[in-house]
Structures are given as structure tokens and as C-alpha cells.
Amino acid sequence: MTPPPPLSSAATIITFLTIIAATSPPPLRSTSSTLAVTSSTVCVIVAGQPTQTIQCYKNSHTLPISPNISFRSISAGADLLCGLISGGFSFLCWDPRNLLPKRIYYSYSNRLTDLTVGNSHVCAIQANNGEALCWRFPSPEVAWKFRTITSGGGFSCGILKNNSRVVCWGESEIGDEIQREFGNLTMWSIVAGVSHACGLTQTGILICKGSNSSGQLDVPSHLPFEFEGIAMGSNHSCAIQSKNGLVLCWGGGSRRSEFVRDELKYESFEAIEAGLDFICGLTTKNLSVICWGPGWSNGLSLLPLPMAIPGPCVQSSSCSICGVYPNSDSLCAGSGIICKSSSLKCQNSRTLRRQRSGTSTSSKQGDRVEKFSLTELGVATSNFSPENKIGRGSFGTVYRGELADGRKVAIKRGKRAVFKEGLSPMGVVEYAVPLIAAGELDSVLDKRVAPPDVREAEAVELVAYIAKHCVKLQGWQRPSITDIVANLERALALCEGGISSPTCYTDNSQ
Ligand SMILES: *[C@@H]1O[C@H](CO)[C@@H](O)[C@H](O)[C@H]1NC(C)=O
Ligand SMILES: *[C@@H]1O[C@H](CO)[C@@H](O)[C@H](O)[C@H]1NC(C)=O
Ligand SMILES: *[C@@H]1O[C@H](CO)[C@@H](O)[C@H](O)[C@H]1NC(C)=O
Ligand SMILES: *[C@@H]1O[C@H](CO)[C@@H](O)[C@H](O)[C@H]1NC(C)=O
Ligand SMILES: *[C@@H]1O[C@H](CO)[C@@H](O)[C@H](O)[C@H]1NC(C)=O
Ligand SMILES: *[C@@H]1O[C@H](CO)[C@@H](O)[C@H](O)[C@H]1NC(C)=O
Which distant-in-sequence residues (6+ apart) come within 8 Å of 9 by Cβ? Predict the structure, then answer.
């Protein structure tokens, strides 16, 4: 991460605070991939054409897939590829060996979302009632209404609409185990591998459950907002890091190192999908596909597929939540626009935006840093008059104020906490954040206090990371108050010995 630049060169810093309201859980999300991977074939939905057709890479060749019609999303298991036709009223599947299409579902009125393919079976959610339907596989109980579903090896799992808990079904016992292990966690997303599943909790923490035969449950970070896109293979897991788009993989047993490639040190990805023992991603730079891993024939290659769309082309302006993908009208060639994937990160910024604009709905400044001169802030607070004082903390005084455009704000006027490190004095943020980011938390702790024990150290680390995220300059990078409270409670519980491992974290915010 990049440390925030100094906020002001003067001895006094002014921080623009947000007006805080209660946060609500993130809204519905649906899975709509435009990249799909079987054991031998990699497919994308092609960009820049009025018809969003599919092309696949197989045996070193790139092939157009018939029929030549528009698809909304594609999904694949080891030996089955399926595509949801634009509109969602029909889907087709192909055997990857011959790529001949078969129509599996057609309806005049019943739209589907979340088409998901496991090992040789396929499930989807009916948009009208949230029930899941499966083919070549048992459908789940009709009482279960889903927000999202995912299919793995002989099991499928979903997140229930009413309580955000995970339920699983299918013939494989691993599904029962995964459901039991997720227990009472309230989840925001879930993706299944062959015998494990990972997902983000509603507070943005990545958690994996199920088989750990090759260390695939060993998530490298339990901090909120570290990851967004996730993909699971037979015994590995990968995720896109929110801060830089780089892909991190774990598990894979003795072949773990083959998922780490020097060529990808700076390559940012929009989306990833896993094969059994390799991984493919859509690059941010030009939406082309790169695949790598122990099961990929050349170890790593850039596929000769055309540029892919990063999400479904949709008709209306239905992207109010997370905004529109840049340049998406040309990616869809006049047949719609692409919504930014509804990541937790942008859900969070939406919440912040709403909080910031108060009752006004026209605020566009939520995601931007706004700078105010001391004079402007003086005017807003009647020159920091005592009547406008609403609070006082160890780092400064908080004033109520009204900006020239009528927005009501809280303004913190702080004394700059100065640390002498070498010759030049510096603020607490500039001093501590880089050390925390470098994993040198010990060096910012007060040496006069006895060193923390193991659980306390974990709690201190959690608090330090919350602090680090809270001073990010961009609103969307900062956690919501719900998340902060949940994490502080967790830190407290750790100190009190109430929690034995990071993965047993539960969110009771509902
Ligand atoms: C698909 O159909 C469009 C017109 O609808 C046509 O322009 C295009 O060449 C066709 N592509 C293939 C691969 O047949
Ligand atoms: C949510 O739905 C499930 C399955 O239908 C049901 O068992 C559970 O009691 C419901 N929970 C709430 C809080 O409504
Ligand atoms: C899950 O929640 C229910 C009530 O909501 C409670 O009875 C049960 O003990 C909880 N289970 C765990 C493992 O915390
Ligand atoms: C998963 O396995 C790895 C070793 O391969 C182990 O270090 C780790 O503790 C295990 N994690 C869980 C959650 O069981
Ligand atoms: C991981 O899964 C692959 C099958 O995709 C298997 O060949 C390999 O042996 C597995 N590795 C380990 C360490 O279990
Ligand atoms: C994407 O960029 C790479 C170079 O980084 C280039 O080789 C490739 O042809 C580009 N792909 C597309 C679809 O433009």
C-alpha cells in the first residue's frame, strides 16, 4: 500500500470527517462471469461486438462457439461449459470435447440468474422467487431462497437471502461439512472448489472451509477488505487483492510455488477463474486472458483470445450501486453498458456516499478527496467558535459546520502529533502507517508497556490494521462504521480470550 501523503505542511492539520449514519448490509449481488475454464478449454464473452458471442481457446486454437447469439454470462466445471443467453430466459451447455450446443432450459417468463457449473452438473437461481434449480443434480429445498449460489465437486452451496447463512446440498458429504463449518457466519459471497469453498463475510474477511488436504484453507490474511475476486481449484485457492489487483494463491501442496510467477509481479486482474490445478485471469490492462499454474501446459501463457467484456452488457442504467465500467459502451459496441462488479469495496463506498450526502441524493463527491482551505473551514465553523464545538478527543477538537454549498459537516481540528525519527519531525500517520504496512508493528508500540502476549498481539494487530484503513485518503478505501465496530469487538474478544482462532469470527450485525 502507499502511505498517505502528508495532509498539510503546517503544524496544524484539519481532517474532513464524514457524518455517520447506521449502515445497512450490502444489497443483493449476482454471479455473472464472462470468463469460464474447464480442464481443457478457456472461454470468454467477446468485447467490441454488438452480439456478445463466446470464443474458446482449446488445443492451441481459438474457436468461435455456435450459436452466434448474445450471452450474458458463462460458467464451467471440469467437463461442462454453460452459457446464460442475454435476458436470462434460456441457457445452453456444451461438452468441451466437441463444443456442440445443447439447450437445457427455456422459459417465456422465468428469468434465471447465477448460472453455476460444478463437476458435470449445473444450477441457477430463479429471479422471481430466489429458488434454485439444478440439472443432473438434486435441486435444493424450495424453502431456501438464495441470494447467490456456487457449485463444486458433487455439492453446491448458497447464501440464504433471509439470514445470509451458508447452506449446501448434493451427494457429496463435503457439502454437509462445509455448511456445518460456515455455521452462523453471515456471508456476502461464496465460491466452491472441488472439495472446499471460500467466501467473504459481510465484514469483508475471506474465510475458507472444507478439505484442507493441500493447505487450501490457509488464507494468507484475515483482515477486512484485503480481497475481492476469488477462485478455487481442486486443491488451491486464489484471490485478487483489492489494493492492487494482484492475484495471490495458496494451497496446492508441494506445487504451491508454481502459482507464483515473476511475470505477474505487476499484472492487475479484473476477474479470475480456476481450473483443477491452474488459474486464469482477465487482465486490467487490456482484458486479455493469462493462465498459469502447475496444471497449465506451458506454466504460464497469454492466450490468443480476443479482448473480453469484464461483465455482462446490460440495457438500462441498472448500475446505480457501483457505477459503470470505464469505456463500457464501446466494449458492448452499442448494445448496452457494463456495471462495475458489485464488490464489497464499492458497496462500502456506496454506503459512505449515502452517509456523506445526508438527505441530499445528488452528491457525487463521495469517492473523491476534497480539499478545503483553512479559510473555508473557518467560515464554515464561524472561525472555530466555541458554540460549534461538538466534541474533543486526544488528537483534537471536533466542530459542527456548514459548507458554502449547504452541506453539513463535522470538522476535526487536530494538533499534529509529532514523532522525532532522525532529524525531521513527522505526523503519527506518516510515522506509523508505513511501519504497520511493513509488518513492523512492534516498533510503534510503547516500549514502557510490557510486550503483548500472543492473543493481545493479534488484537493489537487488528486494531492497527483498522487504523491503517481508516486513514486512507479515498472514501471507498475506508471501512464502514459497522465494520469498525465489528472488528473492535473482535479485538476485545481476543484480549479477553473469547476467540481462539481468526476463522471463528462471527458477525452478528443483522
Ligand atoms: C455473427 O453474426 C453477426 C451478425 O449478427 C455477424 O456480423 C458475424 O460475422 C457473425 N459471426 C460469426 C463468427 O459467424
Ligand atoms: C431463513 O430461511 C431458512 C430456510 O427457509 C429458515 O430455516 C430460517 O428459519 C429462516 N431464518 C430467518 C431468520 O427467517
Ligand atoms: C448459531 O445461532 C443459533 C441461534 O441463532 C444458536 O442457537 C447456535 O448456538 C449458534 N451456533 C453456533 C455454532 O454459534
Ligand atoms: C491447513 O493446512 C495447513 C498445512 O497444509 C496448516 O498449516 C493449516 O493450519 C491448516 N488450516 C486449517 C484451517 O485447518
Ligand atoms: C491436487 O489436485 C490434483 C488434481 O487436480 C492432483 O493431481 C494432485 O495430486 C493434488 N495435489 C495434492 C497435493 O493433493
Ligand atoms: C494485451 O497486451 C499484451 C501485452 O501486454 C499483448 O501481447 C496482447 O496482444 C494484448 N491483447 C489484446 C487482446 O489486445
Answer: none
Q: Give the domain ranges of the chain.
A: 214-310, 418-504
Residue 304 beta carbon below 6 angstroms from any ligand 1 atom: no
The radius of gyration of the chain's CA atoms, rounded to the nearest angstrom, is 24
What atom of ligand 6 comes closest to residue 287's alpha carbon? Answer: 13
Residue list, ligand 3 pocket, CB within 6 Å = 183-184
Given a contact cutoff of 8 angstroms between Cβ atoms, the answer to whether 45 and 74 are in contact is: yes
Tell me how far apart the alpha carbons of residues 336 and 315 are, in angstroms, rounded to a whole number.
Answer: 5
What are the strands, taking DSSP E only, across 365-406?
A: 389-393, 396-402
Considering the domain delimited by 214-310, tell me its CATH architecture: Beta Barrel (2.40)
User: How confident is the prediction along the chain (510 residues), in pLDDT tens digits per residue?
Assistant: 444 443 333 333 333 333 222 233 333 345 689 999 999 999 999 999 999 999 999 999 999 999 999 999 999 999 999 999 999 999 999 999 999 999 999 999 999 999 999 987 999 999 999 999 999 999 999 999 999 999 999 999 999 999 999 999 998 999 999 999 999 999 999 999 999 999 999 888 999 999 999 999 999 999 888 998 999 999 999 999 988 999 999 999 999 999 999 999 999 999 999 999 999 999 999 999 999 999 998 899 999 999 999 999 987 666 756 778 888 889 999 888 898 865 665 655 544 443 333 333 333 333 445 667 777 788 888 888 888 887 776 567 888 887 777 677 777 776 655 555 555 666 777 777 777 766 677 777 877 777 777 677 777 777 877 787 787 766 666 777 777 777 787 777 777 764 443 332 333 333
Residue to probe by mutation, ligand 5, list 212, 235, 256, most atoms within 8 Å of CB:
235
What global pTM score does this model have?
0.70
Q: What is the SS3 assignment for 306?
A: coil
428 and 421 Cβ atoms separated by less than 8 Å: no
For ligand 6, the distance from its centroid to the CA atom of residue 476, given in whole angstroms, is 30
Write out the H or E segment, with its range, that includes residue 82: strand 80-85
Dihedral, CA of residue 411, residue 413, residue 414 and residue 415, to nearest 10: 170
d(CA 43, CA 204): 29
Q: Whose CA is nearest to atom 1 of ligand 4?
A: 215
